[in-house]
């Protein structure tokens, strides 16, 4: 059987179907638990939500005062996010820029963001390439938060619901982040408590203001 391709058309069709059938449920989906745990005490600044989907995490950040560039290649997901942000009020909506872009090509400006988040995005190329591109967009002193579903449960060796998918892994993220420039605060595989099944790789890293050799990062 052919492997599914998680390309633009696949995702836009998926979002159209999901919103046609479950718009209310999607609007009520709480922001990601790792995001809330890891970032609750981070002071707001400028954030990138790469592969933002319908924007539950973008909205959480904007509600807490972050200015967010929310990037996704599905116009359907972005339209939903924009509508939810408007429903949340002008103060929240005007802190968000919804950007249609393909993360395989869309390259954020260097050192633009205090925070870059990328949660559960299926990567078409090498995970390291995406991580490096996102990492370069973070200012010295800033934060990178990544999560990906793991295809294999490390505890049992069994395939998960994300089998055959390429998402962020702890190994790939650590391979992409130069330890002289990045302090790794979290690099874990965590069972998905909410879903009740599956395993998430979670990486939170802090870009050093100076490299460990003393040079500016
Ligand atoms: C599983 S959803 C996750 C959405 C959101 N980050 C979350 O945690 O709920 C993956 C999202 O990434 C988007 N996506 C996948 N590949 C992408 C790419 N190459 N460029 C931009 N967006 C992409 C999809 O359209 C989809 O909205």
UniProtKB/TrEMBL annotation:
Coiled coil: none annotated. Residues 48-142 form the Methyltransferase domain. It comes from the Bacteria. Gene3D superfamilies: Vaccinia Virus protein VP39. Keywords: Methyltransferase, Transferase. GO terms for molecular function: 2-polyprenyl-6-hydroxyphenol methylase activity; 3-demethylubiquinol 3-O-methyltransferase activity. GO terms for biological process: methylation. It is an enzyme of class 2 (transferase). It holds the Pfam family Methyltransf_25. The keyword Transferase applies. This is Class I SAM-dependent methyltransferase. It comes from Dokdonella ginsengisoli.
């Amino acid at each position: 059987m052919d492997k599914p391709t998680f390309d633009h058309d696949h995702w836009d069709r998926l979002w159209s179907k999901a919103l046609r059938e479950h718009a209310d449920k999607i609007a009520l989906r709480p922001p990601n638990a790792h995001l809330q745990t890891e970032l609750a005490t981070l002071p707001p600044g400028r954030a990138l939500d790469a592969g933002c989907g319908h924007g539950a995490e973008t909205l959480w950040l904007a509600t807490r005062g972050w200015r967010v560039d929310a990037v996704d290649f599905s116009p359907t997901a972005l339209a939903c996010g924009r509508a939810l942000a408007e429903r949340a009020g002008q103060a929240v909506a005007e802190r968000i820029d919804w950007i249609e872009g393909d993360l395989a090509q869309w390259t954020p400006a260097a050192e633009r963001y205090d925070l870059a988040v990328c949660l559960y995005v299926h990567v078409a190329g090498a995970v390291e390439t995406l991580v490096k591109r996102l990492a370069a967009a973070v200012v010295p002193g800033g934060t990178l938060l990544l999560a990906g579903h793991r295809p294999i449960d490390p505890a049992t060796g069994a395939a998960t619901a994300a089998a055959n998918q390429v998402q962020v892994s702890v190994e790939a993220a650590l391979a992409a982040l130069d330890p002289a420039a990045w302090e790794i605060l979290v690099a874990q595989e965590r069972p998905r408590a909410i879903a009740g099944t599956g395993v998430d790789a979670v990486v939170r890293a802090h870009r050093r203001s100076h490299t460990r050799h003393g040079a500016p990062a």
